[in-house]
Amino acid sequence: MTTSTVDVKTPEQAPPPVPAPGRRRRFAVHFAHYKWLYLLLLPGVIYFAVFRYAPMYGVSIAFKDYVPFLGVNASPWVGFQHFEDFFSNPDFGRLLGNTLILAFLNLGIAFPLTIVMALLLNEVRLSILKRTVQTLVYIPHFLSWTIVASLSFLLFALDFGPLFLFINSVLGTNIDFLSDPAWFRPLIVLQEIWKNTGWGTIIFLAALATVDQDQYEAAIIDGAGRFRRVWHITLPGIRSTIIVMLILAIGQMLNTGFEQIYLMTNALNRSVADVFDTYVYFVGITQGAYSYSTAVGLFKSLVGIVLIFGTNALAKRFNQSGLF
Amino acid sequence: MKIHNTRGGRIFDAANYVFLVLIGVLTLLPFIYVFAGSFATEAEITRRAFFVWPEQFSLGSYEYIFSTAAFIRALVTTVLVTAVGTVVQLILTVTMAYPLAKRNLRGRQLILSLVVFAMVFSGGMIPTFLLIKDLGLLNSYWALILPAAINPFSLIIIKNFFQELPAELEESAKMDGATEIGILWRILLPLSKPVLATFALFYAVGIWNDFMSPLLYLSDNSKWTLQMYLRQVTASSDLLGTGNVDPNYIPPEQGIKFAVIVVATLPILIFYPFLQKHFAKGMLIGSVKG
Questions:
Q1: I need a surface site. Which of A75, A139, B179, B226 has the fewest CB within 10 A?
Q2: CB pairs under 8 A between A and B
Q3: What is the DSSP letter of A60?
Q4: Which is more confident, B18 or A310?
Q5: B125/A contact by beta carbon, under 8 A
Q6: Nearest-CA residue of chain A relative to B113?
Q7: pLDDT band with cut points at 50, 70 and 90 for residue B241
Q8: Alpha-carbon gap: B146 to the closest alpha carbon of chain A (Å)
Q9: Which residues constitute the domain of residue A29?
């Protein structure tokens, strides 16, 4: 990418375009010929250099003792000090546990529900009904987590929220769902299901549309019922899509969704609510421990990369086409 | 092909239809409640557990929020940031995608690899925050726009789209003496209008909904966006153990929370039909190839 920035400065020395055929083009001629294209490329290249690659370089402060007035370069190196501090910190076990429990709840509940929802939609032959339901269940995906959290605050509001009153009257209890740590995870999973299950069906519905219809006819002749057809034809037909989506989901496992968790965190549920993402924010931004929190963030992304390559290798091992 | 339906099959169909309609209605119910509540009186909200139609119609909540300077400021700020941000994202993405669509451009492969790498690995929250701080963008609206100005996924989708347009169009324009920028402006952009409109909508929704950037970069609460304002209004005071909130802050009445949620949701719902028309397509052509 440095080449293009240099090249845009040199077009004037080059001869006009249309190089002689058969002659080996020199760089200068090439750049002169395409000078407008390189000029168009420049803002984008600058963007990637500044806003994508400079922060990657900034990750080096995970191994330094970052001092704001010294900057990233001049701050002294400390090696793996911050990582050692983090792993020996009692917070580490708690964060890892909270993050993994939420991740497995989402993988174990929200992910299969998406497939079930897609299968049910796929069985609908009344296209108006199908389209209407799809239209409705896709909507929440486009709303911000702030709105989802606000709706939750209203629906579960102490003493007058509809769901607060309803669930408590059914259970005969008086639970404040928003602050009770035991209800934090169910609420998070519920929000995730409401917001993204419908949207998640799109990719599975697309895969379902490609399943060979002749196989169903053959199965019907063989006397296979509705459920056996789903089990023996539909599910195997979308197996590779399920595996790819599962790999992606596992790769994203530690990304618990900063906005959602942050918005639902409060003083009373911190013990179960703190995950890596929000911890980086609280320790880094609000307490100013920049180097330490960068180390935590780096640890999290490295584990994420290991997870995605690991699952991909496993998928290939079991003779499935992986993601790459 | 007509599949003969057994009795069991018909029962399943009926149950399935009822179940799916129920899911659809349940998805919508929170909105209906909030919408109805925003037009109800304070007394009705606290008295009735759940309703989809207010007994007594009242505009009080809206009158209140539109009379407060903080709300108006947040609303205007968000509209402006969304508009400018969308335009900036479109311009930067298109200008970068067009040269990258030229297969014979030298350095193209290197830049594409770097773009793909940036999809997989990022600096993370703190290094990005420190960069924004060093650039002097804290408490500037540009901090909400620039860090995410080019989405690598959209860049590659738009690049692929340009690449798939027939080459003859450009050839003939070149014969007529059009420059590269002329070709982009007069030929490619008009052809890409529907695609770019779709991306514009998605960008706009993304900026409108963004909560993390203002949380990280705008500490001055006179600059807050609608999402930040919504957060402050709806999180009741005893739950605010985590935000930066004024201790003298008095929680607003319930009706106001309802009204602010409606205002923050409405633009998304209005644009939703346009979004829906395109997103399935957009998601499926997102395959990454060089």
A1: B179
A2: 282
A3: G
A4: B18
A5: yes
A6: A1
A7: very low
A8: 8
A9: 2-58
Q: Is residue A294 part of a domain?
A: yes
Greatest distance between any 2 Cα atoms in chain A: 88
* Confidence tier at B273 by pLDDT (50, 70, 90): confident
Structure tokens at B25: 């209605």
Per-residue model confidence (pLDDT) at position B244: 44
pLDDT band at A324 (very low <50, low <70, confident <90, very high): low
Instruction: Answer whether residue A216 is part of any domain.
Output: yes
The answer to whether the Cβ–Cβ distance between B127 and A149 falls below 8 Å is: no
Report how many domains make up chain A.
2
Do A111 and A18 have their domain in common? no
Residue B243's pLDDT band (cuts 50, 70, 90): very low
Q: Taking CB atoms and an 8 Å cutoff, what residues of chain B touch A162?
A: 33, 49-50
Is residue A87 pLDDT above 50, yes or no?
Answer: yes
**B24 contacts on A by Cβ (under 8 Å):** 132-133, 136-137
Please report the pLDDT score of residue B238 as a whole number. Answer: 44
Contact A136 B98 (CB under 8 A): no
pLDDT of residue B103: 87
How many Cα atoms within 13 Å fall on the side-chain side of residue B22? 8
Q: Which two tokens stand for residue B147?
A: 């860090």
Dihedral of CA B68/B71/B75/B80: which sign? Answer: positive
Residue A19 sits in the same domain as residue A157: no
Please report the pLDDT score of residue A220 as a whole number: 83
A123 pLDDT higher than 50: yes
State whether A45 and A163 are in the same domain. Answer: no
Is B114 close to A4, i.e. CB distance below 8 A?
A: no
Domain identity same for A45 and A94: no
Distances in Å between the alpha carbon of B189 and those of A308, B122, B161? 37, 31, 11
Q: Cα separation of B261 and B38, whole Å?
A: 9
The residue in chain B having the minimum alpha-carbon distance to the alpha carbon of residue A202 is B280
DSSP H stretches of helix in chain A: 2-7, 27-33, 35-47, 54-58, 71-74, 81-88, 90-105, 111-123, 127-138, 145-155, 162-171, 184-209, 213-221, 226-229, 235-237, 239-251, 258-264, 270-273, 276-280, 290-317
Measured between CA atoms, the residue of chain A closest to residue B234 is A150
Is the pLDDT score of B282 beyond 80? no
Taking CB atoms and an 8 Å limit, are B239 and A266 in contact across chains? yes
Long-range contacts of A222-229 (CB under 8 A, 24+ apart): A225/B6, A225/B8, A225/B9, A226/A123, A226/B8, A226/B9, A226/B12
Q: Cα A58 vs. chain centroid, distance in angstroms?
A: 22
Cα distances (angstroms) measured from residue A55 to each of B33, B99, B202: 44, 25, 25
At B65, the amino acid letter reads: I
